[in-house]
């Protein structure tokens, strides 16, 4: 992957799709063009509607659930962004282990108190 890779290219080349099970639901922003790749793995794509989109009742309930879950995803991402090392410019010598660095930071964030109460 080079600079300027598309979202689709990043997802396909990252092996993320190989982690999916049939009937998994993947949330993504508008314009994320991976629906066909998900269908090949019998997974589904959930994209929250825009503010102006009107839908029938069953879709409204699904969209509310997706929007509610998206809040938690954003909170989890924000936890990663609060880590000081990710705010700094990293030396090019760390490029080969950047994935390991991100994985360790994500694992440490997962040790924090839950984002959602179990009640």
Walk me through what this model shows.
The model has no long low-confidence stretch (mean pLDDT 79). A two-stranded parallel ribbon has the order 1-2. The chain is globular, with a radius of gyration of 17 Å. The longest helix is centred in the middle third of the chain and has 25 residues, at 57-81. It contains four helices and two strands. 0% of the residues are buried. By secondary structure, it is mainly alpha-helical. The chain folds into two domains: 1-47, no CATH class; 51-119, no CATH class. The chain has helices at residues 7-13, 35-40, 57-81, 98-110, and strands at residues 25-27, 44-46.
Total separate domains: 2
Number of strands: 2
Alpha-carbon distance between the two ends: 43 Å
Proportion of helical residues = 40-55%
Biggest sheet: strands side by side, in what order?
A: 1-2
Task: Give descriptors for this structure.
2 domains, metal ion binding, DDE Tnp4 domain-containing protein, about 45% helix, mainly alpha, single chain, about 120 residues, two-stranded parallel ribbon
Lay out the secondary structure.
Blueprint: H1 7-13, E1 25-27, H2 35-40, E2 44-46, H3 57-81, H4 98-110
Parallel strand pairs: 1-2
In a few lines, what is going on in this structure?
The chain has 119 residues and is mainly alpha-helical. The protein has 4 helices and 2 strands; from the N terminus they run αβαβαα.
């Amino acid at each position: 992957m080079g600079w300027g890779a598309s979202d689709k290219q990043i997802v396909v080349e990252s092996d993320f799709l190989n982690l999916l099970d049939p009937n998994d639901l993947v949330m993504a922003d508008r314009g994320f063009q991976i629906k066909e790749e998900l269908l090949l793995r019998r997974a589904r794509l959930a994209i929250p509607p825009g503010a102006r989109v009107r839908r029938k009742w069953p879709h409204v309930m699904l969209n509310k659930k997706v929007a509610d879950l998206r809040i938690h995803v954003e909170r989890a991402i924000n936890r990663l962004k609060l880590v000081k090392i990710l705010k700094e410019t990293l030396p090019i010598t760390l490029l080969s282990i950047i994935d390991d660095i991100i994985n360790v930071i994500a694992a440490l964030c997962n040790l924090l108190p839950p984002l959602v109460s179990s009640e």
